[in-house]
Amino acid sequence: MELWIIASVAAALFQSVRFMLQKHLAQVKLSAAGATFARFVYSAPLAGLILAVVLWSQRPDVGWPGPAFWAYGAVGGAAQITATVCTVMLFGRRNLAVGMTFIKSEVLLTALIGFVVLGEAVSGIGLLAIVLGVIGVLVLSGPLEGGRSWRRFLSPSAALGLGAGALFGVSAVFYRAASLEVMAQAPMLRALVTLAAVTMMQMLGMWVWLRFREPGEVGRVLGAWRSAGFIGLTSMAGTFCWFTAFTLQNAAYVKAVGQVELIFGVLATLLIFREKISGREYIGITLLALSILGLVALA
């Protein structure tokens, strides 16, 4: 199995854990921006330290990244921050299911943005596999409850979900562009350089933002280090896996395989919480699995 597939699946697993931790912080202790900041303030120093150790111990042949790297990284980092804030804000709103459904448009939007920004087209078979996966995700999301469901698609939750999906797509494509600017042969080294640079920019940018817009929130994040620290660790591990995959493959394919996190969630429901899986969920899992297997075979 190719490295980008392994990295995509691992990233999805880490992301599932991080979202659960972020939801807890957003509901109990921190604002949406504070819960988002937690993933960077604890991951950026560790990522920088790991990169420093690798550079000092192995002396790899890697040059200082040029302006394009920093520009791509800054845009991707800002998009990811905004998308994460939108996602955390969804956790406390009505019509959560509608918003989360729109977030799942991320894969299709990533394919479109990747074509516009990097000129990376998705093959016809690849597009069919991606669409099949999106359908599977929508089936897993379940039917909307209540009457006049169409009005829910005009709600603030829908806007937050669609905005988050688009911004996650922007971040994925620009992170791939940034990693390709790193002058190094090893894909994992390129991913590590990108990770350290981007998370440091995100940490500093959000620190300044919170100091002026939400005074005292930085202190609350630092005070919640027991929970927030785990967010930082899972964020760093997951982002490193994403960046490794982005370095090796089209971002749309990476994100499509990453949808396996939905299957992780259903399996956890079955194996850990001993809850039954409905026929609809079996259909969704089957469609999503076929999509992922198709992309793996295509690669």
TrEMBL record:
The chain crosses the membrane at residues 36-57, 69-91, 111-141, 153-175, 187-210, 222-246, 252-273, 282-298. InterPro entries: EamA_dom, EmrE-like. The keyword Membrane applies. The keyword Nucleus does not apply. SUPFAM superfamilies: Multidrug resistance efflux transporter EmrE. Residues 3-141, 159-296 form the EamA domain. GO terms for cellular component: membrane. Signal peptide: none annotated. Keywords: Membrane, Transmembrane, Transmembrane helix. It comes from the Bacteria. This is EamA-like transporter family protein. The lineage of its organism: Bacteria, Pseudomonadati, Pseudomonadota, Alphaproteobacteria, Rhodobacterales.
